[in-house]
Amino acid sequence: MNRLNLVIKKLFLLSVLMYAFAAQSNDDNYAPGSLADFLLGDTLKGNDLALIGWASSTLVFNDDKSDGILPNGALSTDEGLHLNQLALMFCKGDGCLPTTKFSPKHNLLSRITPTPAPKSESLDIGFNLLAVYGSDSQFLRISGFDDFDFDDDKDEKLSIPQWYLDVYLPYFDGMNIMLGSFMSPLAREIGYPFAPPRWFATSSYELLYSPVKHVGALVSVKIPTDKQFGLLSIEGGITTGWNNLSNRNGSLAYLAGLRYRTSDMTSGIDIELMLGNGEDDFAEAPAKGGSQFFALSSRGKRLDRIAANITLMHQVSPDLETILELFYGSQEGGDIAAGPQFITEDVHWYGAFVALRYQLQPGIFINGRTEWVNDKKAANALFAGSPGNTYAVTANIDWQLNAYLNVITEVKYDIYRGNGLPLFANKTENNQLLGLVNFIIKF
Length: 443
Prior knowledge:
The chain is mainly β. It has helices at 2-23, 34-40, 205-208; strands at residues 49-62, 80-92, 108-109, 113-114, 124-134, 157-169, 175-183, 213-223, 231-239, 253-261, 267-277, 304-317, 320-331, 347-361, 364-375, 388-400, 405-417, 431-442.
């Protein structure tokens, strides 16, 4: 059966590549959703609707005898060929962002940025419905919603991580409300493998310490400012927690954010914060959503958790972009130790990464990233038994062959320094070298 699965994946990848190369001569100005537009004519486009698809597949290997490669910030869990994502998104208007199907319509894009566009004077409603099948889905699931069991023993799983309304209101200098399940505004990477701001095939360690999605409401407001000052927006939200709909501990969580951009949009700062109850908010089974921090109280006591991010962005030149991201988190300890991954004292973690993106020529980019995480108590369940510091260096070439196909060739070197069990290769190695080739097709 394993051999059959491998053959199916190879055939899938081959068909993906053949389709992408065949499409190259047809339309270099392709936009996501063009296949549905071709099949359905102007039915979707004429109503500001889109049916967008993509497939992401990765061939990955490491330098040791074990095939296990987590935790390292990558979304593949072992060596070999993986179908990371086969995704289909049905969306309307700004609900299709950050894909590039439609140009932004408003001067405020929730979770993303304020823009210098003029304020719209009318209400506008968009939406997003996203389904993903593949190995990445184990990181995208929502506890209490994606509780499927037909794929428990499969590498590829199904998730429906986004289903939300995106409502623009002509109040203040522009206002936006998201209602439903949406990718988290915390951290820079918000789930799509090909849309900005994703530069790497692997994810940063920060993603392992952040919520991936929320169910609730997020309100964004653009603040009137002088043109010379720049652009400013604030955000506030109420959700059912961390990758969580079931709300097992009966508590709400709160989001807050501030986003600043210079008038020419070449520099910016994002400050994001989440505060909630971390007591018993992990899922009942692996890959079912919930948080990666396990804390329990025998009396059901509230155990506060904080997650915070600061992102600084600067466009040095038309060809060079830079990012510095800092993150911090803490979890109040419980009084139940059901295993080494359970937190029984107050803990905190913090880290940073610096990333650069340079365009060699149109369609070819070189990306580099250096990162560090300090988790002295191994609070993250994926790091159980391995407290200490983790470092990583990542470099790749992102080749956008045409509008349909991206190929990313990437290497990543991880180092663990601590006084616990080795972190990599199924707890057998303190260092790890990864190599991978990632193929992304858009249709």
